[in-house]
Amino acid sequence: MTSPFRFSELARSMQPSPIRELFPVIRQPGMISFAGGLPDPAAFPVAAFAECAEVLERDGREVLQYGASEGYPPLLEALLAMMSERLGFEVPPERLLVTSGSQQAVNLAARVLLDPGDVVVVEAPTYPGTIHCLRNAGARFATVPCDANGMVVEGLPEVVRRAEQATGRRAKLIYTVPDFSNPTGATMSLERRRRLVELAGELGVPILEDDPYGRLRYAGEPLPTLARLSGGAPHVIYASSFSKVLAPGVRVAWTVASPELVRAMVLMRQGEDLCTSTVTQALVAEYCRRGHLEGHMGTILSVYAVKCRAMQRSLERHLPAGAATWTEPSGGFFFWLELARGSSREVFDRAAARGVAFVPGGAFYPGPDEQVGEVLGGDRHARLCFTFADEAAIDEGCRRLGLVLEGP
Ligand SMILES: Cc1ncc(COP(=O)(O)O)c(C=O)c1O
User: Fold this and answer.
1) Which of 234, 260, 290 is the endpoint of a domain?
2) Angstrom distance (rounded) from CA 399 to CA 231
3) CA of 212 to the centre of ligand 1 (A)
């Protein structure tokens, strides 16, 4: 039967998420998965959340109603206080927007800023969900390499210049995850942060600072966000989320941006989801109001610090000498391994056959034909998430990976 649908050009060109594509393999019985960037479900504050559901009895008539596109007022209030502390300036209400996950924040920013063919500067490697929504907005990618200190900011002016030469367009946005990057786990140095904020101002290209992992630091001193370093300048857009620190199922995140950008994002979302679920916003607001968040942060920081150390020890113990190199992350969710031999896609297939899964590095780069300027790719790398598996599974998974890396 012929299809009744004539799909849009965009729908016809869409590619599946490279990580979600791995799900059938990851879900096989007995598989130890380091693939998904998932929080530890054992650490979810289930009982406290269940108690917070009392908010439905107390405020049900409001909570079950449509809410404002900007966000649910008690949650906005909690976020304003949290953000003024994290960003170091008084955040006014017109600069704050609650979104359905920070994935939506990136998507809304892309949709209000980009026309098809526009250039976005991304770190390479970077978060595939961002690649996906920038691609949907018709972006072309100018890639800046990363090292152990995050984006190699020194190369940024040249990347912007070359992309402009190739496309005739000045880049519209710089996307970065300065703290505990997905996938590399690296943190941008203070010097580079300062330089990035300065350069973005000079080049006239706004920065989208995506910060879902910033508070998940297990070692070393916290570094200021780009938004803080900019003193609240309009060219830094800041996005964060409750997904990694609380629970991704609530789909509650937020953005701090200039009022004109927030307004544009609000109008855009009115054609999408109208507002983030008022029910989950109310649950999160109640959770914060009861003062649970700080205690929970303490719990997950110690749980994840132990798991991070465990993965470091197990990789050292089980991987054959010289088979891979990596830097132990000081926070976040991920180890980023550089394999000495073989493509990570091919190693993935052999690892899956032995019952351990990771994400091959290629998933974290835009396609070669989507990049302008120098083309970067990641076939030698593997991303391993350490937060989901328990300590025994971390050790066994690393043991299996070690066997795979010993030889074909
Ligand atoms: C860097 C980064 N940004 C955004 C997201 C999406 O988070 P959310 O659940 O808030 O949509 C993720 C999730 O893995 C991420 O790693």
Assistant:
1) 290
2) 47
3) 6
The CA distances from residue 166 to 120, 122, 171, 234, 370, in Å, are: 13, 17, 11, 28, 13
Q: How far is CA 220 from CA 223, 331, 371, in A?
A: 9, 9, 35
Q: Which amino acid is at 395?
A: D
Q: Ligand 1: residues within 6 Å at CB? A: 37, 101-103, 127, 129, 177, 182, 210, 212, 241, 243, 248, 253
Looking at the domain assignment, is residue 126 inside a domain?
A: yes
Are both 252 and 222 inside the same structural domain?
Answer: yes
Report d(CA 393, CA 388) in Å as an integer: 10
Nearest atom in ligand 1 to 106's CA:
4
**Cα–ligand 1 centroid distance for 351 (angstroms):** 26
Q: What dihedral angle (degrees, nearest 10) is formed by the CA atoms of 298, 304, 310, 315?
A: -150
Average pLDDT of each block of 10 consecutive residues along the chain (408 residues)?
Answer: 91 84 89 96 96 96 97 98 96 98 98 98 97 96 96 97 97 98 98 98 98 98 98 98 97 98 98 97 98 96 98 98 96 98 93 96 94 90 98 98 89
Supply the DSSP symbol for 104. H
Tell me, yes or no, whether 335 and 195 share the same domain: no
Residues in the chain: 408
Total domains, the chain: 2
Of 273, 290, 307, the one marking the end of a domain is: 290
pLDDT per residue as tens digits for the range 17-65: 878 788 888 889 999 999 999 999 999 999 999 999 999 999 999 999 9
364 CA to centre of ligand 1 in angstroms:
13
* Domain that includes residue 380, residue range: 9-45+294-406
